[in-house]
């Protein structure tokens, strides 16, 4: 029964909130810590909340811990478990470099895995010691959200924004994502009403992703919708920040 909990993982992959980027006196980018909560639903049925946190990693300057923690309702937790993910990454020359990634879904060994990144060798090693080569732009699924958010901030004012391309590494594969800015909309949430830019995933006809990003909140996603094939739509709406 627990293995069915993998449907909860889209709540984590490509859905976490993104923090504000600041420039310090040395013009090096830094990230402001945050703790945001989203109401989550699956096919229109509420399944709990998602907490997304960013905090400095005290082990090294310019490095961070980024976590997505599910808080499902009691029945959902009993049937499907409570998936959680954490990314540890650094900002290097304005780029995000994944260092370590943990995905935990109790009772599901296939979806619980660890990735350790070695950028000197351009490799990633999993919890079983298996090592793979990765391209220079590879990034884990949580840190990917921050890379997307930085891209939107950089291109929001462009008259004709280019397509955004990213490479995500998971326990088995490299997945190439493409997004486009698709318009502006007003979005109502429990945390308020916001003018937003809508970002859409366009690389796969059967995998939809839509993200409504609020410029007033440093392009924080205030609404997110993902859909994989014939499965019900997963929706996150900003509840509090």
Description of the molecule:
- The protein is mainly beta.
- The chain has a single domain (2-235), classed as Clam (outer membrane lipoprotein receptor (LolB), chain A), CATH 2.50.20.
- It is built from 2 helices and 17 strands.
- The longest helix has 15 residues, at 141-155.
- The model is unreliable at 1-7 and 16-28 (pLDDT under 50).
Layout of helices and strands:
Blueprint: E1 21-23, E2 29-31, E3 34-42, E4 45-56, E5 63-72, H1 74-80, E6 84-92, E7 95-104, E8 113-118, E9 123-126, E10 131-133, E11 138-139, H2 141-155, E12 164-169, E13 174-189, E14 192-201, E15 207-214, E16 220-228, E17 234-240
Parallel strand pairs: 11-12
Antiparallel strand pairs: 1-2, 3-4, 3-17, 4-5, 5-6, 6-7, 7-8, 8-9, 9-10, 12-13, 13-14, 14-15, 15-16, 16-17
Outline the biggest β-sheet.
15 strands, mixed
The total number of structural domains is: 1
Helix content: under 10%
- The shape, in one word, is globular
């Amino acid at each position: 029964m627990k293995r069915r909990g993998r449907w909860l993982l889209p709540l984590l992959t490509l859905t976490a909130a993104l923090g504000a980027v600041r420039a310090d006196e040395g013009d090096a980018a830094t990230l402001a810590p945050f703790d945001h909560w989203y109401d989550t639903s699956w096919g229109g049925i509420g399944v709990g909340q998602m907490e997304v946190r960013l905090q400095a990693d005290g082990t090294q300057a310019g490095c961070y811990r980024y976590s997505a923690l599910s808080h499902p309702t009691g029945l959902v937790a009993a049937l499907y478990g409570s998936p959680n993910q954490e990314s540890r990454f650094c900002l290097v020359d304005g780029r995000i470099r994944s260092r370590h990634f943990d995905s935990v879904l109790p009772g599901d060994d296939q979806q619980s895995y660890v990735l350790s990144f070695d950028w000197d060798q351009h490799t990633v090693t999993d919890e079983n010691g298996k090592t793979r080569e990765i391209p220079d732009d590879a990034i884990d699924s949580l840190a990917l959200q921050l890379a997307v958010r930085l891209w939107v901030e950089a291109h929001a004012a462009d008259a004709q924004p280019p397509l955004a391309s990213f490479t995500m590494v998971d326990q088995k594969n490299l997945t190439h994502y493409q997004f486009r800015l698709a318009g502006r909309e007003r979005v109502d949430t429990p945390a308020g009403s916001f003018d937003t830019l809508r970002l859409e995933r366009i690389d796969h006809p059967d995998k939809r992703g839509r993200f409504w990003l609020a410029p007033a909140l440093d392009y924080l996603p205030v609404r997110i919708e993902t859909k994989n094939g014939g499965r019900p739509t997963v929706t996150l709406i900003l509840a509090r920040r």
